[in-house]
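hey can u check if this looks right to u? its 221 residues, i copy pasted from the old doc so theres a chance i mangled smth
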Amino acid sequence: MIKLVDITKYYSTGYVKTFALRNIDLEVEEGEFVTIMGPSGAGKSTLLYIMGMLDNPSSGEYYFYDRKVHVLTEKQLTELHKNHIGFVFQSYHLIDDLTVYENLETPLLYKKVKGSERKGKVADMLDRFRIVAKKDLFPNQLSGGQQQKVAVARAVITEPRLILADEPTGNLNTKEGEEIMELFKELNEHGTTILQVTHSEKNASYSRRIINLLDGWIVDE
């Protein structure tokens, strides 16, 4: 599904290059549940954003289902991302002035899904994530765990092949965090590939493979 070849990412200030990732070689098969771990500043989120096509590497090659991502235009990247990838952030990224229902509907509007089909898909998600009673509430009326449930439901509603999660339980209490991880486990069991960045050993235990980063290098797998 994903193949990274010699991926490097650096930021230039004047004559100084600061490296976030160095010579990353990595393959992810469809249906895997992979965790990326490492200390702060190790390059975990940078790697996730590159795989999610939200950032570009400075050099190297990225293949997504054998398609050369590293040569695509911005428009082609957006299209590929929109059709295949769901992103879950630590800070939820819900739209404050839209209700839960409207937040879930938004990705379907971007994909130009017809009205009746949209209605059905949103109803399915509300039911599946047990948030039917919250559908007319706004994000600021929800707990952190409820907001993250909505964020996961929104990422899943377009039926992406890949879900990328950046510290998805970082702002949640233990019980809420466990609920989110159980949702990811269930999605993975139904065939969705999941890549998560986490500091939590407990969250990492849900995955089948752990990649450790240090100073931008893969040091252990």
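The two ends are 18 Å apart (CA to CA).
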